[in-house]
Predict the 3D structure of the following.
Amino acid sequence: MTRSLILGAVLSSLVVLAALTSFVWTPYDHAAMNIPDKLQPPGAAHWFGTDHFGRDLFSMIMVGARTSIAVALVAVGIGMGLGVPLGLMAAARKGGWIDEVIMRGNDLVFAFPSLVIAILITAVLGAGAVNAIIAIGIFNIPVFARITRGAALSLWEREFILAARVAGKSDARISAEHILPNVTNLLIVQGTIQFSLGILAEAGLSYVGLGAQPPTPSWGRMLADAQTMVSFAPHLALIPGLAIIVTVLGLNLMGDGLRDWLDPRLRVARA
Amino acid sequence: MLRYSIKRLMSLAISLAVASLVIFLVIEVAPGDPASYMLGINAQPDTVAALRAELGLDVSRPVRYLAWVGGMLSGDFGTSYTYRTPVAGMIGDRLWVSLPLALLALMLSTLIAFPAGIYAAARRGRPGDVSVMGATQLGIAVPNFWFAMMLVLIFAVDLRWFRAGGFAGWDKGFWVAMHSLTLPAISLALPQAAILTRVMRSALLDILGEDFMRTARAKGLSRRQTLWRHGVRNALIPVLTIIGLQFSFLLAGSIIIEQVFNLPGLGRLVFQSISSRDLIVVESVVMLLVFAVIVVNFLVDLAYAAVDPRLRART
């Protein structure tokens, strides 16, 4: 286990723990307004201070973690769920028309920056957390398709696949039983990275008002609300930003650490 | 080279055609008729019909698609539903903010990333490398719009070196306009610089392990000479691809940064158009962004092939 894996895992689990705890306990009701206590700096009563409505920032951060994690997690699920089968199919039919169509389709999605996809979707369907998930998820599909295809292609050249073929297994069965288990490590690492990108993307989308709508709390929206008050209540901008950084940093470190840990070649090199 | 270029040009044309079709279809399924939206709920049916005819909405979808694409090819992006002015003019005005912003950010990120990446690679595993890599981890994790808010807090609110937002306009002079783009460009460049530094470092590390590097040292070149003459030059190829890719991120990323700094660029135009359901503007701006991405990547591919003949043979 590398240091970055441990540090990353600790940071990420802090955030996940905060999100899970918020289902049963938060210091205050995250939506309860308390005007006399508005714009309190961080202190003993309110650990992260309060906002312009006197809402407890710590509770809002905890509940906001839920939104971020849910959006990014489902978006990774969409990307894996559709991208991995497409990548396996493309690799099994390398050079064929299926491969060609899948890879060209991938190129096309890559030409749309994810924010542009989100804008198109909101122009049509309206803003909201679900549409943010779709926008980020669509962008994840080619990422997973490409990485799966690349890894699967080299596996198809290996002898144990030839053996499976000789045994009479179909391409689909070989993909499911032999290729997929061998690319799982790679997918876990990429999943962690896409998860952290999803957190960033969700924050950006909800910052410009295309993500989760009020009253659902989200870190991006908190930053958007804080913008006009940054000169006299900097903690409102500082704290949600730090929450995003801790989450993304944790996931990235964990992804890097996992890659080193799961890749046997690197392990041998270190030993 | 010519055959390769023609082949790539054809796939470029196909990508653009498919992208335009996708954008058109997505916008077409959007609920709400622009004409009735503009006239309000009390409009007479014949007024709505007249406006639909004026906006060119009364013809069939394939005809409308061809008219839209044909118009764009001749520089006519149609007429805005809400402002009744040519979309091309509206985009042109905004482009003068968004494009310089993206280019300035690209320049900044390259200026930071090249020395940082080369420095880290040259000191692999030593404290200098470790701290540069730590800084890039942080740079990737920081959301650029939050970084922008912090820059405003420090340099506009506290130190008063810059204005917190708004764009002075190019008619006020080049340096005044650049001054108002400085903070936005820095906040846009930071995460990209972090990514580019990592790419530069790993590309250079790959090259440093090559046999010809040892040969260069063996023939008597100094460490510094081999690094620059043989290392950096060869590492530039993968770095160039990433710079091409980053251009699209910067253009799209400027949409959010423009919101932070209240800049009248393409991003603001898109958000205004979405809220007023001015879909023809949304359609055209999105097409323009996608066009930029596809063309830049095409140019990077060509540059690649021009530099490295092996790539031409492979395809």
User: Anything to note?
Assistant: The interface with chain B takes residues 104, 107-108, 111-116, 119-124, 196, 200, 203-204, 207-209, 223, 226-227, 230-231, 234, 237-238, 240-241, 244-245, 248-249, 252-253 of chain A (CB under 8 Å). The mean pLDDT of chain A is 85.
